[in-house]
Amino acid sequence: MNKLIVFIIAISMNTQLSISQSTNKEKFDRLPLGSIKPSGWLKAQMKKDMEGFVGNLDKLVPGLINDPIYGSSRLQKHSKAKDLGNLKEGDAEGDDQYKWWNSETQSNWWDGYIRNAILLEDKAALEKVKKYIYNILATQDADGYLGIYDKELRYKFNSENGELWAKTTLYRSLLAYYEFTRNHNVWQAIIKAVDNVMQNYPLNQSQPFAVGTAFSGGVAHGLTFTDILDRMYQLTGDKKYWDYALFLYRNFSDNYSSEKDVQLKNILNPDYKFQSHGVHTYEHLRPLIVAAYASNNVELQKALSIYLARIVRSTTVTGGPIGDEWIAERQADETHTGYEYCSIHELLDSYTVLLQKGGDSKTADQIETIFYNAAQGSREPKHSCIAYLKTDNSYEMQGTKNGEVEPNRKQTRYKYSAVHQDVAVCCAPNAGRISPYFIQSSWFKEDDNLLVAAILCPTILKTTIKNVPVKISEITEYPYSNQFVFKIELEQPISFKIKIRKPEWADSVVTKEPYTLENGFIIINRKFAKTDAIRLEFKTPVRIKENLNHEKYFNYGALVYAKSIESTQLIGKGYRADFFDLMYKPQNHVQYRYVENNIATYNAGKISLQLENKNTNKIERIELTPFSKTILRQVTF
User: Are residues 454 and 502 in the same domain?
Assistant: First the structure.
């Protein structure tokens, strides 16, 4: 049997098992935002982002970020589509989406900005955040409505709209601020706002997704209102929020949508292939997960397993979830299918929800693959900007996909920018969200006696065990080194358990700690002194793997490696200070072919091996570098 098919079946079976065993109990408990802070290289990168595109997007596109769309400029019946500064040639989705776009742009940006400010303990940024939060709360109506529509429009739609989507993007940041501050006014505002939605779209007695048969991208994005409901359930224990999330998923499945991959009938159709806008497809994994857990329904559990298996076929070797911008029934191809930075974030976020609920160590492996490879490999290594679209095998970045021309569409997405305003200011805000979301799922509690290091990265955790304050500093250069020190500081010696994920790629564990291994986790159970430490290292060889097209690629640890291609930088549109659109032209067109006797060895962060030069047909010894540190590159051979 084909190895890929075996792998997909294994993922489906493992996922089904973890879901079925859950009986709608979540495996791990999330820690409040701010409990886990970045350290090491990850903190340095986040600080660079706050000094760069994350911290300055409101200055680069002030008209979009500062649009009072939630307040004095709420949308009315005769509101016109706004000029967002983007090129619309080839866009066939209509103007209605442009009316609500600023809500997504500014709210997703604030969500990332707020979380970065909290995790970096940036006092100046936190003062700016506090002012923003209170300005937003001042726009809330007496009945609790907090959104972008005037009274004549809200909750009365029969076509494209951003009602639930604008609320989702805003309420996520309000929840983040509440978790950090425990501010009573913010919490009451959130409760009233969510209740307002549930009152105006009554459970099982309304049709929030019945909006006709035209394009409805904003309506489909609104299904992720389940993000808010899921977190409200976790914070309150009130099952009404999960019940309402299940209702939204069922109603979305029962109505027409232009973004239909997650609809139950399509998931259960064995002949159906993903075809929708990639971002929708990957973010919609979260509502499906929540519905499966909220209902404990066998059919929905089966649907979740099928959907996860389909995502595997839509994901490149670096974790890049394809969609440039539509999936269009294709399977992942490292040269010919690109992925959007928004999709990178949304799939990662969806997998963190699956990890929290199911506790499967393989899900954490997938999260690390995405973050350490696709996400890092879509950043410009030296400048503060990201690629809107990117391919694994990236032979040029001059606007189009490796030089391919898309008929009837003006393509400018394959370049680096802090803004990407010519397309849409969506990927830059999401690039600011990804690190905080990744970090927030690095540690969990399983019970009051058990901490779980699920995602490996340099962090500092502060929490309590048995009411005793605990600080654990995870000291590592991972994924660029596979050595770890967990420095533990306690107010008093106590006994408790720590689970540390053993990555799927690790052949062995080197540690002096007595441990047991269970379901992909190392379990250390002992009494810890006031000052203590766990030291361990994971051992692995260079691994040669095969993609869906039977091409080969190389891994060492969590990282995919690539042949970097020398390039010439081309500077495009300038914004302010050091912010420019950047493109890259290759200095040569040499590509390499895999050979069996490649003698691949790892040393000092690089893989040395033999490959065949396609131009000369000669064997050459070359070096591969971490994919995350490349711009133009060849990954598969």
Answer: yes
d(CA 119, CA 181): 13
Same domain, 514 and 597: no
Q: State the Cα–Cα distance between residues 364 and 506, nearest whole angstrom.
A: 14
> Is 352 among the domain residues?
no
Strand order in the sheet with 531-539: 36-38, 459-465, 468-475, 483-490, 531-539, 508-510
* Cα torsion through 38, 515, 32, 221, rounded to 10: 80
| Phi–psi pair at 333, nearest 5 degrees | -140, 125
332 domain-assigned: no
Q: Do 515 and 552 fall within a single domain?
A: no
Q: Which of 465, 536, 556 is nearest to 35 (CA)?
A: 465
Instruction: Name residue, tokens 């891994």.
Output: 555
Radius of gyration of the chain (CA): 24
Cβ proximity of 384 and 418 under 8 Å: yes
Terminal alpha carbon distance of the chain: 23
Structure-derived torsion over alpha carbons of residues 242, 246, 251, 256, reported in degrees to the nearest 10: 120
Number of domains making up the chain: 2
On whether residue 501 sits in a domain, the answer given is: yes
Same domain, 628 and 579: yes
If asked whether residues 476 and 518 sit together in one domain, one would say yes
Contacts of 132 (CB under 8 A, 6+ apart): 110
Three-state DSSP at 270 gives coil
Same domain, 508 and 554: no
pLDDT of residue 626: 98
pLDDT over 90 (residue 101): yes
Backbone angles phi, psi at 463, to 5 degrees: -155, -165
6 pLDDT exceeds 60?
A: no
Q: Answer with the one of 477, 512, 539 that is the final residue of a domain.
A: 539
Q: Which residues pair with 521 in a beta bridge?
A: 501, 518
Q: At 367, list the tokens.
A: 């999260």
In whole angstroms, give the CA distance from residue 19 to residue 14: 9
Q: Looking at the structure, tell me whether residues 463 and 526 fall in a common domain.
A: yes
Q: Please answer whether residues 565 and 589 qualify as being in contact, where contact means their C-beta atoms are separated by less than 8 angstroms.
A: no
Work out whether strand 450-453 and strand 494-501 pair parallel, antiparallel, or are unpaired. parallel
Query: Phi-psi category of 121—alpha, beta or left, where left has phi over 0 and alpha has psi -120 to 50?
Result: left
The maximal CA–CA distance of the chain, rounded, in angstroms, is 75
CATH (domain of 454):
2.60.420
pLDDT of 332 strictly over 80: yes
Coil, helix or strand at residue 161: coil
In a domain, residue 519? The reply is yes
Residues 224 and 220: their CA atoms lie apart, in Å, by 8
* 474-493 pLDDT tens trace: 999 999 999 999 999 999 99
Pick the closest to residue 593 from 574, 618, 576, 573 (CA basis): 618
Report yes or no: 585 and 567 within 8 Å, Cβ to Cβ: yes
Rounded average pLDDT over 351-362: 98
Residue range of the domain that includes 610: 544-634
Q: Grade residue 98 by pLDDT with cuts at 50, 70 and 90.
A: confident
The answer to whether residues 578 and 610 belong to one domain is yes
Tokens of 184: 């009573």
Q: Of 539, 570, 604, which residue sits at a domain end?
A: 539
Peptide linkage before 479 cis (omega within 30 of 0) = yes
